[in-house]
């Protein structure tokens, strides 16, 4: 399966590739112009119907005339599968939305934010594969440096998830909820997970697999309702809930003010003598609260 996508400009796919290459489950070619990854086509909620494929996205355009060639490799897809995958990729990479144009218009009058959006023009909010996958990865990332959390996620996928060989590369997928539910804390300790972190992600797997934690239903709640429900689970606090809302559900108004990187970026943007507190960050973003998520990813992006 192959098709061409022309995202709505401005759209900087080069920056998308640079952002994704730091994540555990993406591959980038030597020229830095091709992004590839595995994805599960989820025909129905039952895991037995999840079909893995490899997607290869090749950059053939510019920021103002974006063009991406999509190649899908794996088992033959039905027409319904193809439509599901096209919808998934379109939403995941924000190919056909005017959200960036509206965001830029909204912050144009404030010079520091105007400069920031000019610096990173065309940089979209890239979503995680799904709410379950994003939740597991975010729990793994809690209170760890990026390189170590990245390795933990890859180890979890390599030993207990799914591995797909394609064109000489290994593509990894996290364990499904049922696969994760069958694991023990001791097994994950062998992969260098802490006992608590292992307990937290196994708990998510068990509750999702049993239907006790219905993530797709939670996704229909507003931010406050989602945060209130998801933080009842062991090991899931405000930062994790906010990141899931931002990177899995693309809510536009999230500002994880306790994040150190975000606070460092705001200090740099405003040329402050010291790092702002979370409370000061929340106060700062209030005039642009409807676009807080995009301000967040642009602040993070400003740190390189």
Rounded mean pLDDT is: 95
User: Structural class, judged by helices and strands?
Assistant: alpha+beta
Tell me the strand order in the biggest sheet.
1-5-4-3-2
Any idea what the shape is?
Answer: globular
Oligomer: single chain
Distance separating the two termini: 34 Å
CATH topology of the domain at 131-247: Endonuclease III, domain 1
CATH superfamily of the domain at 131-247: Hypothetical protein, domain 2
Please tell me how large the radius of gyration is: 19 Å
Please provide the count of β strands: 7
Helix count, per DSSP? 15
* Secondary-structure element pattern, one letter each: EHEEEEHHHHHEEHHHHHHHHH
- Provide the low-confidence segments as ranges: none
Which architecture of the domain at 131-247 per CATH?
Answer: Orthogonal Bundle
Describe this structure in words.
It is built from 15 helices and seven strands. With 304 residues, the chain is an alpha+beta fold. Among the domains are: 94 residues, Alpha-D-Glucose-1,6-Bisphosphate, Chain A, domain 4 (2-Layer Sandwich); 117 residues, Orthogonal Bundle (Endonuclease III, domain 1), CATH 1.10.340.30. Strands 1-5-4-3-2 form a five-stranded antiparallel sheet. Helix 5 runs antiparallel to helix 9 and helix 11 crosses helix 12. The radius of gyration is 19 Å and the shape is globular.
